Amino acid sequence: MKAQLRILVLVLNLGALLLLIAPAAAQTDIYRDASQPIEARIDDLLARMTLEEKIGQMTLVAEDSLDPQAVFDYFIGGVLSGGNDEPNVNTPEGWLEMVTEFQDAALDTRLGIPLIYGIDAVHGHNNVIGATIFPHNIGLGATRNAELVEQIGAATAAEMMATGIYWNYAPALPVVQDVRWGRTYESFGENTALVTELGIAYQRGLQGDPLMVLATPKHYLGDGGTTWGTSPFGASNIDRGDTQIDEAGLRELYLPPYIEAVNSGALSIMVSFSSWNGVPMHAHDYMVNEVLKGELGFMGFVVSDWQGIDLVAPDYYQAVVMSINAGVDMNMVPYEFRQFINTMNRAVENGDISLERIDDAVRRILRAKFAVGLFDRPTGDGATLDVVGSEEHRALARQAVSESLVLLKNEGALPLSADAATIFVAGNAADDIGMQSGGWTISWQGASGDITPGTTIFEAITATAGANTHVVFERLGRFDSFQDASGNPAMADYGIVVVGEEPYAEFEGDNGRLALTRGDLTTIERVRAQSDKLIIIVVSGRPLVITDQLQVADAVAAAWLPGTEGQGVADVLFGATPFTGTLPFTWMRSVDQLPFDFANLPTEGCDAPLFPYGYGLTYENSESEWLDLAETCSAG
Ligand code: GLC
Asked: Which residues in the chain show pLDDT less than 70?
Protein backbone atom coordinates (compact mmCIF):
# COMPACT_ATOMS: atom_id res chain seq x y z
CA MET A 1 0.00 0.00 0.00
CA LYS A 2 2.72 2.41 1.07
CA ALA A 3 4.51 1.95 -2.29
CA GLN A 4 1.29 2.75 -4.19
CA LEU A 5 0.77 5.83 -2.02
CA ARG A 6 4.33 6.93 -2.69
CA ILE A 7 3.78 6.55 -6.44
CA LEU A 8 0.51 8.53 -6.21
CA VAL A 9 2.25 11.38 -4.29
CA LEU A 10 5.06 11.36 -6.85
CA VAL A 11 2.58 11.59 -9.70
CA LEU A 12 0.66 14.40 -7.97
CA ASN A 13 3.92 16.35 -7.32
CA LEU A 14 4.92 15.89 -10.94
CA GLY A 15 1.50 17.12 -12.03
CA ALA A 16 1.82 20.17 -9.77
CA LEU A 17 5.25 20.87 -11.16
CA LEU A 18 3.87 20.67 -14.69
CA LEU A 19 1.06 23.01 -13.73
CA LEU A 20 3.63 25.42 -12.34
CA ILE A 21 5.59 25.29 -15.56
CA ALA A 22 2.55 25.18 -17.82
CA PRO A 23 1.31 28.72 -17.05
CA ALA A 24 4.85 30.00 -17.75
CA ALA A 25 4.84 28.11 -21.04
CA ALA A 26 1.29 29.31 -21.71
CA GLN A 27 2.38 32.85 -20.70
CA THR A 28 5.30 32.59 -23.16
CA ASP A 29 2.70 31.71 -25.81
CA ILE A 30 1.11 35.14 -25.92
CA TYR A 31 3.86 36.85 -27.93
CA ARG A 32 4.57 33.65 -29.80
CA ASP A 33 0.90 32.98 -30.51
CA ALA A 34 -0.05 34.20 -34.00
CA SER A 35 -3.73 34.01 -33.06
CA GLN A 36 -3.27 36.72 -30.44
CA PRO A 37 -3.84 40.42 -31.34
CA ILE A 38 -0.58 42.14 -32.24
CA GLU A 39 -0.89 44.73 -29.48
CA ALA A 40 -1.29 41.93 -26.91
CA ARG A 41 1.78 40.18 -28.29
CA ILE A 42 3.73 43.44 -28.05
CA ASP A 43 2.58 44.09 -24.46
CA ASP A 44 3.54 40.59 -23.42
CA LEU A 45 6.95 40.69 -25.07
CA LEU A 46 7.81 44.23 -23.98
CA ALA A 47 7.06 43.31 -20.38
CA ARG A 48 9.64 40.53 -20.60
CA MET A 49 12.46 42.51 -22.16
CA THR A 50 15.49 43.89 -20.35
CA LEU A 51 16.85 47.35 -21.18
CA GLU A 52 19.72 45.65 -23.01
CA GLU A 53 17.29 43.69 -25.16
CA LYS A 54 15.28 46.84 -25.87
CA ILE A 55 18.29 48.90 -26.93
CA GLY A 56 19.40 45.98 -29.09
CA GLN A 57 16.11 46.22 -31.00
CA MET A 58 16.88 49.89 -31.77
CA THR A 59 20.23 48.96 -33.29
CA LEU A 60 20.58 48.38 -37.07
CA VAL A 61 24.01 47.18 -38.21
CA ALA A 62 25.61 46.64 -41.63
CA GLU A 63 26.19 42.94 -42.31
CA ASP A 64 29.91 43.38 -42.88
CA SER A 65 30.28 45.11 -39.48
CA LEU A 66 29.19 42.18 -37.28
CA ASP A 67 28.88 38.42 -37.22
CA PRO A 68 25.99 36.24 -36.07
CA GLN A 69 27.61 35.87 -32.66
CA ALA A 70 27.36 39.65 -32.13
CA VAL A 71 23.68 39.52 -33.09
CA PHE A 72 23.24 36.99 -30.27
CA ASP A 73 25.44 38.78 -27.75
CA TYR A 74 23.90 42.24 -28.24
CA PHE A 75 20.29 41.26 -29.09
CA ILE A 76 20.63 43.19 -32.40
CA GLY A 77 17.22 44.01 -33.88
CA GLY A 78 18.20 44.77 -37.46
CA VAL A 79 20.92 43.94 -40.00
CA LEU A 80 21.18 45.47 -43.46
CA SER A 81 23.07 45.09 -46.68
CA GLY A 82 24.19 48.53 -47.81
CA GLY A 83 24.75 49.10 -51.51
CA ASN A 84 28.15 47.42 -51.42
CA ASP A 85 27.34 44.56 -49.06
CA GLU A 86 26.94 41.05 -50.40
CA PRO A 87 27.43 37.42 -49.29
CA ASN A 88 30.61 35.50 -50.08
CA VAL A 89 28.85 34.06 -53.12
CA ASN A 90 26.53 36.55 -54.80
CA THR A 91 23.78 34.15 -55.84
CA PRO A 92 20.19 33.96 -54.59
CA GLU A 93 21.23 30.88 -52.60
CA GLY A 94 24.20 32.76 -51.16
CA TRP A 95 21.96 35.62 -50.04
CA LEU A 96 19.44 33.26 -48.40
CA GLU A 97 22.22 31.45 -46.57
CA MET A 98 23.79 34.67 -45.24
CA VAL A 99 20.48 36.17 -44.08
CA THR A 100 19.46 32.90 -42.44
CA GLU A 101 22.69 32.70 -40.45
CA PHE A 102 22.04 36.13 -38.94
CA GLN A 103 18.40 35.30 -38.26
CA ASP A 104 19.20 31.99 -36.58
CA ALA A 105 21.46 33.85 -34.14
CA ALA A 106 18.64 36.24 -33.26
CA LEU A 107 16.19 33.37 -32.79
CA ASP A 108 18.65 31.70 -30.39
CA THR A 109 18.49 34.66 -27.94
CA ARG A 110 16.59 34.36 -24.66
CA LEU A 111 13.29 35.66 -26.05
CA GLY A 112 13.96 34.64 -29.66
CA ILE A 113 13.00 38.00 -31.14
CA PRO A 114 13.66 37.77 -34.90
CA LEU A 115 15.84 40.46 -36.45
CA ILE A 116 14.65 42.27 -39.54
CA TYR A 117 17.04 42.24 -42.50
CA GLY A 118 16.93 45.31 -44.74
CA ILE A 119 18.18 46.14 -48.25
CA ASP A 120 17.84 48.79 -50.97
CA ALA A 121 15.92 46.86 -53.60
CA VAL A 122 15.10 50.14 -55.32
CA HIS A 123 14.74 48.85 -58.91
CA GLY A 124 14.43 45.12 -58.40
CA HIS A 125 16.43 43.00 -55.98
CA ASN A 126 19.36 44.92 -57.37
CA ASN A 127 22.24 43.75 -55.12
CA VAL A 128 21.72 40.18 -56.36
CA ILE A 129 23.48 39.03 -59.52
CA GLY A 130 20.83 37.51 -61.78
CA ALA A 131 17.91 39.45 -60.32
CA THR A 132 15.54 41.34 -62.59
CA ILE A 133 16.67 44.97 -62.82
CA PHE A 134 13.66 47.18 -63.53
CA PRO A 135 13.84 50.75 -64.82
CA HIS A 136 14.75 53.23 -62.12
CA ASN A 137 11.86 55.30 -60.77
CA ILE A 138 12.42 58.17 -63.22
CA GLY A 139 11.56 55.78 -66.05
CA LEU A 140 8.55 54.47 -64.15
CA GLY A 141 7.47 58.08 -63.74
CA ALA A 142 7.51 58.43 -67.52
CA THR A 143 5.09 55.49 -67.84
CA ARG A 144 2.42 57.19 -65.69
CA ASN A 145 1.19 53.59 -65.20
CA ALA A 146 0.32 52.96 -61.52
CA GLU A 147 -0.88 49.41 -62.18
CA LEU A 148 2.43 48.51 -63.80
CA VAL A 149 4.38 50.09 -60.94
CA GLU A 150 2.36 48.12 -58.39
CA GLN A 151 3.19 44.91 -60.29
CA ILE A 152 6.87 45.84 -60.19
CA GLY A 153 6.64 46.33 -56.43
CA ALA A 154 5.11 42.89 -56.09
CA ALA A 155 7.72 41.27 -58.33
CA THR A 156 10.49 42.91 -56.34
CA ALA A 157 8.97 41.64 -53.10
CA ALA A 158 8.80 38.11 -54.49
CA GLU A 159 12.48 38.15 -55.41
CA MET A 160 13.39 39.56 -52.00
CA MET A 161 11.31 37.00 -50.08
CA ALA A 162 12.94 34.21 -52.04
CA THR A 163 16.18 35.24 -50.32
CA GLY A 164 14.61 35.64 -46.88
CA ILE A 165 14.59 39.46 -46.89
CA TYR A 166 11.37 41.23 -45.79
CA TRP A 167 12.41 44.88 -45.47
CA ASN A 168 13.02 47.20 -48.42
CA TYR A 169 14.37 50.77 -48.18
CA ALA A 170 11.93 51.81 -50.89
CA PRO A 171 10.03 53.56 -52.34
CA ALA A 172 11.96 56.79 -52.47
CA LEU A 173 9.41 59.62 -52.50
CA PRO A 174 11.42 62.74 -53.28
CA VAL A 175 9.61 65.38 -55.34
CA VAL A 176 12.79 66.51 -57.07
CA GLN A 177 12.99 70.21 -57.87
CA ASP A 178 16.56 70.38 -59.19
CA VAL A 179 17.75 67.62 -61.55
CA ARG A 180 21.39 68.42 -60.77
CA TRP A 181 20.85 66.12 -57.75
CA GLY A 182 22.53 62.72 -58.04
CA ARG A 183 19.37 61.03 -56.77
CA THR A 184 16.99 62.43 -59.39
CA TYR A 185 16.62 58.98 -60.97
CA GLU A 186 15.34 57.57 -57.67
CA SER A 187 12.36 59.92 -57.98
CA PHE A 188 9.14 59.38 -59.94
CA GLY A 189 9.18 63.04 -60.97
CA GLU A 190 8.94 66.73 -60.13
CA ASN A 191 5.20 66.65 -59.54
CA THR A 192 3.78 65.89 -56.09
CA ALA A 193 0.65 64.14 -57.37
CA LEU A 194 2.67 61.89 -59.71
CA VAL A 195 5.13 60.93 -56.95
CA THR A 196 2.24 60.19 -54.62
CA GLU A 197 0.30 58.08 -57.10
CA LEU A 198 3.22 55.97 -58.30
CA GLY A 199 5.11 55.83 -55.01
CA ILE A 200 2.10 54.47 -53.17
CA ALA A 201 1.30 52.06 -56.01
CA TYR A 202 4.83 50.67 -55.61
CA GLN A 203 4.40 50.53 -51.82
CA ARG A 204 1.14 48.58 -52.16
CA GLY A 205 2.73 46.10 -54.54
CA LEU A 206 5.79 45.67 -52.37
CA GLN A 207 3.84 45.24 -49.11
CA GLY A 208 1.31 42.75 -50.46
CA ASP A 209 -1.98 41.97 -48.75
CA PRO A 210 -1.60 40.49 -46.21
CA LEU A 211 1.58 42.37 -45.39
CA MET A 212 4.63 40.34 -46.41
CA VAL A 213 7.41 42.90 -46.97
CA LEU A 214 8.04 46.15 -45.11
CA ALA A 215 8.20 49.16 -47.41
CA THR A 216 10.18 52.17 -46.22
CA PRO A 217 8.99 55.40 -47.78
CA LYS A 218 12.03 57.71 -47.79
CA HIS A 219 13.55 60.19 -47.10
CA TYR A 220 11.27 62.14 -44.79
CA LEU A 221 10.98 65.11 -45.49
CA GLY A 222 11.90 67.39 -48.38
CA ASP A 223 14.96 65.45 -49.59
CA GLY A 224 14.25 66.47 -53.19
CA GLY A 225 13.98 70.17 -52.48
CA THR A 226 17.45 71.06 -51.25
CA THR A 227 19.30 74.11 -52.54
CA TRP A 228 22.37 73.76 -54.74
CA GLY A 229 25.51 74.59 -52.76
CA THR A 230 24.04 73.87 -49.31
CA SER A 231 25.30 70.27 -49.27
CA PRO A 232 27.84 69.17 -46.63
CA PHE A 233 29.82 67.83 -49.62
CA GLY A 234 30.59 71.30 -50.87
CA ALA A 235 29.55 74.22 -53.07
CA SER A 236 29.18 72.01 -56.15
CA ASN A 237 26.78 69.65 -54.47
CA ILE A 238 23.16 69.52 -53.47
CA ASP A 239 22.80 66.09 -51.83
CA ARG A 240 21.83 66.15 -48.15
CA GLY A 241 21.54 69.95 -48.33
CA ASP A 242 19.05 72.39 -46.90
CA THR A 243 15.44 72.65 -48.06
CA GLN A 244 14.69 76.34 -47.76
CA ILE A 245 10.93 76.83 -47.84
CA ASP A 246 8.16 77.90 -45.48
CA GLU A 247 6.00 75.32 -43.73
CA ALA A 248 3.05 75.81 -46.07
CA GLY A 249 5.30 75.14 -49.06
CA LEU A 250 6.94 72.15 -47.39
CA ARG A 251 3.57 70.62 -46.62
CA GLU A 252 2.12 71.28 -50.07
CA LEU A 253 5.08 70.01 -52.09
CA TYR A 254 6.58 67.17 -50.03
CA LEU A 255 4.12 65.89 -47.40
CA PRO A 256 1.30 64.37 -49.56
CA PRO A 257 3.27 61.22 -50.50
CA TYR A 258 3.85 60.49 -46.80
CA ILE A 259 0.23 61.12 -45.85
CA GLU A 260 -0.77 58.48 -48.41
CA ALA A 261 2.12 56.21 -47.40
CA VAL A 262 0.94 56.18 -43.78
CA ASN A 263 -2.67 55.71 -44.86
CA SER A 264 -1.50 52.80 -47.04
CA GLY A 265 0.01 50.96 -44.11
CA ALA A 266 3.68 51.99 -44.09
CA LEU A 267 5.30 50.67 -40.90
CA SER A 268 8.81 51.99 -41.39
CA ILE A 269 9.83 55.41 -42.70
CA MET A 270 13.38 56.61 -43.24
CA VAL A 271 14.25 60.11 -42.17
CA SER A 272 16.25 62.34 -44.50
CA PHE A 273 19.90 63.39 -44.31
CA SER A 274 18.73 66.82 -45.45
CA SER A 275 17.64 69.75 -43.32
CA TRP A 276 14.65 72.04 -43.34
CA ASN A 277 15.61 75.69 -42.93
CA GLY A 278 18.82 74.64 -41.20
CA VAL A 279 17.43 72.00 -38.82
CA PRO A 280 18.48 68.39 -39.62
CA MET A 281 15.50 66.14 -40.25
CA HIS A 282 17.18 63.46 -38.10
CA ALA A 283 16.67 65.75 -35.10
CA HIS A 284 13.44 67.45 -36.14
CA ASP A 285 11.18 66.90 -33.14
CA TYR A 286 8.30 68.89 -34.67
CA MET A 287 8.28 67.22 -38.10
CA VAL A 288 8.89 63.68 -36.77
CA ASN A 289 7.16 63.50 -33.41
CA GLU A 290 4.41 66.07 -33.88
CA VAL A 291 3.65 65.88 -37.59
CA LEU A 292 4.58 62.35 -38.73
CA LYS A 293 3.71 60.43 -35.54
CA GLY A 294 1.13 62.82 -34.14
CA GLU A 295 -0.76 64.53 -36.96
CA LEU A 296 -0.36 61.77 -39.56
CA GLY A 297 -0.78 59.03 -36.94
CA PHE A 298 2.22 56.99 -38.09
CA MET A 299 2.31 53.86 -35.86
CA GLY A 300 5.42 52.23 -37.30
CA PHE A 301 9.05 53.05 -36.62
CA VAL A 302 11.32 55.77 -37.94
CA VAL A 303 14.71 54.50 -39.07
CA SER A 304 17.73 56.77 -39.48
CA ASP A 305 19.71 56.90 -42.64
CA TRP A 306 23.28 55.53 -42.89
CA GLN A 307 25.18 57.23 -40.01
CA GLY A 308 22.53 59.92 -40.27
CA ILE A 309 22.46 60.41 -36.49
CA ASP A 310 26.21 61.13 -36.42
CA LEU A 311 25.71 64.21 -38.63
CA VAL A 312 23.22 65.83 -36.25
CA ALA A 313 25.78 67.27 -33.82
CA PRO A 314 29.57 67.26 -33.38
CA ASP A 315 29.23 65.46 -30.05
CA TYR A 316 28.05 61.89 -30.60
CA TYR A 317 26.31 61.63 -27.24
CA GLN A 318 24.31 64.78 -27.97
CA ALA A 319 23.56 63.59 -31.50
CA VAL A 320 22.11 60.33 -30.20
CA VAL A 321 20.06 62.04 -27.49
CA MET A 322 18.69 64.66 -29.92
CA SER A 323 17.79 62.15 -32.64
CA ILE A 324 16.18 59.50 -30.42
CA ASN A 325 14.20 62.14 -28.53
CA ALA A 326 13.18 63.73 -31.86
CA GLY A 327 11.55 60.44 -32.82
CA VAL A 328 14.15 58.24 -34.49
CA ASP A 329 13.32 54.74 -33.27
CA MET A 330 16.02 52.63 -34.94
CA ASN A 331 19.56 53.78 -35.66
CA MET A 332 21.18 52.64 -38.91
CA VAL A 333 24.47 52.89 -37.08
CA PRO A 334 25.75 51.00 -39.21
CA TYR A 335 29.34 50.32 -38.08
CA GLU A 336 30.18 51.07 -34.42
CA PHE A 337 27.14 49.44 -32.84
CA ARG A 338 28.84 48.86 -29.47
CA GLN A 339 29.47 52.61 -29.22
CA PHE A 340 25.80 53.31 -29.94
CA ILE A 341 24.59 50.75 -27.41
CA ASN A 342 26.93 52.11 -24.71
CA THR A 343 25.84 55.66 -25.50
CA MET A 344 22.19 54.70 -25.21
CA ASN A 345 22.79 53.05 -21.83
CA ARG A 346 24.57 56.17 -20.61
CA ALA A 347 21.77 58.42 -21.86
CA VAL A 348 19.16 56.30 -20.04
CA GLU A 349 21.26 56.28 -16.85
CA ASN A 350 21.61 60.08 -17.10
CA GLY A 351 17.91 60.50 -17.71
CA ASP A 352 18.58 62.16 -21.07
CA ILE A 353 16.56 59.45 -22.83
CA SER A 354 13.56 58.19 -20.84
CA LEU A 355 12.51 54.57 -20.45
CA GLU A 356 9.14 55.63 -21.85
CA ARG A 357 10.90 56.80 -25.02
CA ILE A 358 12.74 53.49 -25.25
CA ASP A 359 9.52 51.52 -24.80
CA ASP A 360 7.75 53.64 -27.44
CA ALA A 361 10.52 53.00 -29.97
CA VAL A 362 10.63 49.25 -29.23
CA ARG A 363 6.84 49.01 -29.34
CA ARG A 364 6.88 50.52 -32.83
CA ILE A 365 9.65 48.19 -34.02
CA LEU A 366 7.88 45.12 -32.60
CA ARG A 367 4.60 46.25 -34.16
CA ALA A 368 6.25 46.19 -37.59
CA LYS A 369 7.95 42.84 -36.94
CA PHE A 370 4.72 41.20 -35.82
CA ALA A 371 2.71 42.77 -38.65
CA VAL A 372 5.10 41.64 -41.38
CA GLY A 373 5.02 38.09 -40.02
CA LEU A 374 8.62 37.79 -38.86
CA PHE A 375 7.70 35.96 -35.64
CA ASP A 376 5.77 33.39 -37.63
CA ARG A 377 7.98 33.26 -40.77
CA PRO A 378 11.44 34.52 -39.78
CA THR A 379 13.35 33.14 -42.77
CA GLY A 380 12.93 31.98 -46.36
CA ASP A 381 12.73 28.28 -47.12
CA GLY A 382 14.46 28.39 -50.50
CA ALA A 383 11.38 27.06 -52.27
CA THR A 384 11.04 30.10 -54.54
CA LEU A 385 14.65 30.90 -55.42
CA ASP A 386 13.93 30.41 -59.12
CA VAL A 387 11.68 33.46 -59.07
CA VAL A 388 14.81 35.63 -58.92
CA GLY A 389 15.36 36.95 -62.45
CA SER A 390 12.46 34.83 -63.76
CA GLU A 391 11.23 35.15 -67.35
CA GLU A 392 7.92 36.45 -66.03
CA HIS A 393 9.61 39.27 -64.15
CA ARG A 394 11.90 40.05 -67.07
CA ALA A 395 8.85 40.31 -69.34
CA LEU A 396 7.30 42.77 -66.86
CA ALA A 397 10.53 44.78 -66.87
CA ARG A 398 10.60 44.75 -70.68
CA GLN A 399 7.06 46.18 -70.74
CA ALA A 400 8.12 48.87 -68.26
CA VAL A 401 11.12 49.79 -70.41
CA SER A 402 8.92 50.20 -73.48
CA GLU A 403 6.39 52.32 -71.62
CA SER A 404 9.15 54.47 -70.11
CA LEU A 405 10.64 55.64 -73.42
CA VAL A 406 9.82 59.25 -74.30
CA LEU A 407 9.99 60.36 -77.95
CA LEU A 408 11.40 63.89 -78.07
CA LYS A 409 11.82 64.26 -81.84
CA ASN A 410 11.04 62.17 -84.90
CA GLU A 411 11.46 63.53 -88.42
CA GLY A 412 10.91 60.55 -90.70
CA ALA A 413 13.36 58.28 -88.88
CA LEU A 414 11.35 56.00 -86.57
CA PRO A 415 10.06 53.30 -86.54
CA LEU A 416 13.12 51.49 -87.92
CA SER A 417 12.38 49.49 -91.07
CA ALA A 418 12.89 45.73 -91.04
CA ASP A 419 14.03 46.13 -94.67
CA ALA A 420 16.97 48.35 -93.80
CA ALA A 421 20.25 47.20 -95.33
CA THR A 422 22.56 48.59 -92.63
CA ILE A 423 22.20 49.94 -89.11
CA PHE A 424 25.20 51.43 -87.33
CA VAL A 425 25.02 51.32 -83.52
CA ALA A 426 27.43 53.37 -81.37
CA GLY A 427 27.81 55.13 -78.05
CA ASN A 428 29.03 54.40 -74.54
CA ALA A 429 25.67 53.10 -73.38
CA ALA A 430 24.74 51.03 -76.45
CA ASP A 431 26.18 47.67 -75.40
CA ASP A 432 26.60 47.94 -71.64
CA ILE A 433 24.29 46.45 -68.99
CA GLY A 434 25.94 48.48 -66.26
CA MET A 435 25.41 51.79 -68.06
CA GLN A 436 21.78 51.03 -68.81
CA SER A 437 21.13 50.01 -65.18
CA GLY A 438 22.79 52.92 -63.38
CA GLY A 439 23.52 53.21 -59.68
CA TRP A 440 22.25 50.81 -56.99
CA THR A 441 22.98 47.85 -59.25
CA ILE A 442 25.10 45.02 -57.79
CA SER A 443 27.09 47.76 -56.06
CA TRP A 444 26.15 51.10 -54.50
CA GLN A 445 27.52 53.26 -57.29
CA GLY A 446 26.81 50.75 -60.02
CA ALA A 447 29.45 50.17 -62.71
CA SER A 448 29.71 49.99 -66.48
CA GLY A 449 30.29 46.60 -68.06
CA ASP A 450 28.75 43.16 -68.03
CA ILE A 451 27.81 43.26 -64.35
CA THR A 452 24.71 41.04 -64.38
CA PRO A 453 22.74 38.96 -66.90
CA GLY A 454 20.54 41.01 -69.23
CA THR A 455 20.01 42.28 -72.78
CA THR A 456 21.87 45.36 -73.96
CA ILE A 457 20.24 47.83 -76.32
CA PHE A 458 22.60 46.75 -79.12
CA GLU A 459 21.79 43.08 -78.56
CA ALA A 460 18.10 43.91 -78.67
CA ILE A 461 18.41 45.88 -81.92
CA THR A 462 20.35 43.02 -83.46
CA ALA A 463 17.73 40.49 -82.35
CA THR A 464 14.86 42.59 -83.72
CA ALA A 465 16.26 43.85 -87.02
CA GLY A 466 15.23 42.28 -90.31
CA ALA A 467 16.87 39.03 -91.39
CA ASN A 468 18.80 40.82 -94.12
CA THR A 469 19.75 43.87 -92.07
CA HIS A 470 23.41 44.23 -91.22
CA VAL A 471 23.69 45.65 -87.69
CA VAL A 472 27.18 46.85 -86.79
CA PHE A 473 28.37 48.07 -83.37
CA GLU A 474 31.35 50.36 -82.94
CA ARG A 475 31.32 52.12 -79.55
CA LEU A 476 33.11 55.25 -80.77
CA GLY A 477 31.24 55.47 -84.08
CA ARG A 478 34.27 54.78 -86.27
CA PHE A 479 32.65 53.17 -89.31
CA ASP A 480 35.02 54.59 -91.91
CA SER A 481 36.18 51.08 -92.77
CA PHE A 482 32.75 50.65 -94.33
CA GLN A 483 33.19 51.88 -97.88
CA ASP A 484 31.06 51.88 -101.02
CA ALA A 485 32.17 50.55 -104.40
CA SER A 486 34.13 53.72 -105.13
CA GLY A 487 35.96 53.49 -101.81
CA ASN A 488 34.06 56.30 -100.11
CA PRO A 489 32.66 55.84 -96.57
CA ALA A 490 29.43 53.84 -96.94
CA MET A 491 26.19 55.32 -95.67
CA ALA A 492 24.01 53.33 -93.28
CA ASP A 493 20.24 53.54 -93.48
CA TYR A 494 20.25 54.35 -89.77
CA GLY A 495 22.88 55.44 -87.29
CA ILE A 496 21.82 54.92 -83.66
CA VAL A 497 23.98 56.57 -80.98
CA VAL A 498 23.17 55.59 -77.40
CA VAL A 499 24.70 58.26 -75.20
CA GLY A 500 24.69 58.09 -71.45
CA GLU A 501 25.94 58.88 -67.98
CA GLU A 502 28.44 56.67 -66.21
CA PRO A 503 26.61 55.06 -63.24
CA TYR A 504 26.51 56.98 -59.98
CA ALA A 505 24.57 57.20 -56.71
CA GLU A 506 23.76 59.94 -54.22
CA PHE A 507 26.24 62.80 -53.90
CA GLU A 508 28.58 61.16 -56.43
CA GLY A 509 26.00 62.08 -59.03
CA ASP A 510 25.56 65.72 -58.13
CA ASN A 511 26.37 67.49 -61.39
CA GLY A 512 26.27 71.18 -62.29
CA ARG A 513 26.84 70.71 -66.04
CA LEU A 514 24.62 67.80 -67.14
CA ALA A 515 26.51 67.72 -70.44
CA LEU A 516 27.12 64.83 -72.81
CA THR A 517 30.66 63.56 -72.69
CA ARG A 518 33.21 64.76 -75.23
CA GLY A 519 33.40 61.20 -76.46
CA ASP A 520 29.68 60.96 -77.06
CA LEU A 521 29.67 64.27 -78.94
CA THR A 522 32.46 63.03 -81.22
CA THR A 523 30.63 59.76 -81.74
CA ILE A 524 27.49 61.62 -82.75
CA GLU A 525 29.45 63.65 -85.30
CA ARG A 526 31.04 60.53 -86.79
CA VAL A 527 27.79 58.63 -87.09
CA ARG A 528 25.95 61.68 -88.45
CA ALA A 529 28.41 61.76 -91.34
CA GLN A 530 27.70 58.14 -92.30
CA SER A 531 23.96 57.70 -91.71
CA ASP A 532 20.93 58.66 -93.73
CA LYS A 533 18.94 58.91 -90.50
CA LEU A 534 20.58 59.66 -87.12
CA ILE A 535 18.78 58.54 -83.97
CA ILE A 536 20.06 59.53 -80.50
CA ILE A 537 18.94 57.51 -77.48
CA VAL A 538 19.69 59.19 -74.12
CA VAL A 539 20.41 56.70 -71.28
CA SER A 540 20.58 58.87 -68.18
CA GLY A 541 19.34 59.39 -64.66
CA ARG A 542 17.84 62.77 -65.55
CA PRO A 543 17.47 65.25 -68.41
CA LEU A 544 20.85 66.17 -69.96
CA VAL A 545 21.72 69.19 -72.12
CA ILE A 546 21.02 67.99 -75.69
CA THR A 547 19.91 71.28 -77.21
CA ASP A 548 22.47 71.26 -80.02
CA GLN A 549 22.23 67.52 -80.68
CA LEU A 550 18.45 67.87 -81.05
CA GLN A 551 19.10 69.88 -84.24
CA VAL A 552 21.61 67.38 -85.61
CA ALA A 553 19.52 64.24 -85.11
CA ASP A 554 16.49 63.09 -87.07
CA ALA A 555 15.07 61.43 -83.97
CA VAL A 556 15.78 61.63 -80.22
CA ALA A 557 14.34 59.50 -77.40
CA ALA A 558 14.91 59.41 -73.66
CA ALA A 559 15.38 55.87 -72.27
CA TRP A 560 16.36 56.89 -68.70
CA LEU A 561 17.97 53.92 -66.85
CA PRO A 562 16.10 50.92 -68.29
CA GLY A 563 17.87 48.12 -66.41
CA THR A 564 18.51 44.60 -67.73
CA GLU A 565 15.72 44.36 -70.31
CA GLY A 566 17.08 46.35 -73.25
CA GLN A 567 14.66 44.49 -75.53
CA GLY A 568 12.02 46.95 -74.38
CA VAL A 569 13.93 49.71 -76.21
CA ALA A 570 14.13 47.81 -79.49
CA ASP A 571 10.44 46.87 -79.27
CA VAL A 572 9.57 50.55 -79.51
CA LEU A 573 12.28 51.59 -81.99
CA PHE A 574 11.01 49.01 -84.50
CA GLY A 575 7.37 49.93 -83.84
CA ALA A 576 6.35 46.62 -82.24
CA THR A 577 5.11 48.72 -79.34
CA PRO A 578 4.23 52.43 -79.47
CA PHE A 579 5.88 55.38 -77.83
CA THR A 580 3.62 56.27 -74.86
CA GLY A 581 5.99 57.79 -72.31
CA THR A 582 5.80 61.42 -71.19
CA LEU A 583 8.39 63.51 -69.34
CA PRO A 584 8.32 63.22 -65.53
CA PHE A 585 10.71 66.17 -65.40
CA THR A 586 10.89 69.47 -67.24
CA TRP A 587 13.81 69.27 -69.71
CA MET A 588 16.15 72.29 -69.58
CA ARG A 589 17.55 74.12 -72.60
CA SER A 590 20.67 74.86 -70.56
CA VAL A 591 21.76 74.35 -66.94
CA ASP A 592 21.59 78.12 -66.49
CA GLN A 593 17.84 77.64 -66.29
CA LEU A 594 18.20 75.53 -63.09
CA PRO A 595 16.65 75.45 -60.63
CA PHE A 596 13.37 76.12 -62.42
CA ASP A 597 10.94 78.52 -60.84
CA PHE A 598 8.00 76.23 -61.49
CA ALA A 599 5.48 78.83 -60.38
CA ASN A 600 6.69 81.20 -63.12
CA LEU A 601 7.97 78.92 -65.87
CA PRO A 602 8.08 80.65 -69.29
CA THR A 603 6.15 78.73 -71.95
CA GLU A 604 7.46 80.68 -74.96
CA GLY A 605 10.72 82.26 -76.08
CA CYS A 606 14.19 80.93 -75.47
CA ASP A 607 13.90 81.31 -71.70
CA ALA A 608 11.35 78.52 -71.84
CA PRO A 609 12.56 74.98 -71.14
CA LEU A 610 13.48 72.76 -74.08
CA PHE A 611 10.53 70.45 -73.29
CA PRO A 612 7.85 70.77 -70.57
CA TYR A 613 6.75 68.27 -67.94
CA GLY A 614 4.36 65.84 -69.64
CA TYR A 615 5.85 66.26 -73.14
CA GLY A 616 6.11 63.19 -75.33
CA LEU A 617 5.55 62.52 -79.05
CA THR A 618 3.98 59.42 -80.58
CA TYR A 619 4.29 57.68 -83.93
CA GLU A 620 0.98 59.24 -84.89
CA ASN A 621 1.90 62.75 -83.76
CA SER A 622 5.48 63.93 -84.10
CA GLU A 623 4.76 67.63 -84.60
CA SER A 624 5.24 70.07 -81.70
CA GLU A 625 5.66 73.79 -81.25
CA TRP A 626 8.38 72.92 -78.76
CA LEU A 627 10.45 71.54 -81.62
CA ASP A 628 9.81 74.66 -83.65
CA LEU A 629 10.92 76.81 -80.71
CA ALA A 630 14.03 74.64 -80.24
CA GLU A 631 14.96 75.18 -83.88
CA THR A 632 14.37 78.93 -83.61
CA CYS A 633 16.41 79.28 -80.43
CA SER A 634 19.23 77.14 -81.82
CA ALA A 635 19.35 79.24 -84.96
CA GLY A 636 20.03 82.08 -82.50
C1 GLC B 1 22.08 55.48 -48.13
C2 GLC B 1 20.83 56.18 -48.62
C3 GLC B 1 19.55 55.49 -48.25
C4 GLC B 1 19.76 53.99 -48.14
C5 GLC B 1 20.73 53.74 -47.00
C6 GLC B 1 21.05 52.26 -46.84
O7 GLC B 1 23.04 56.40 -47.73
O8 GLC B 1 20.69 57.55 -48.29
O9 GLC B 1 18.59 55.81 -49.26
O10 GLC B 1 18.54 53.34 -47.90
O11 GLC B 1 21.93 54.47 -47.14
O12 GLC B 1 21.77 51.79 -47.95
From this structure: 1-28
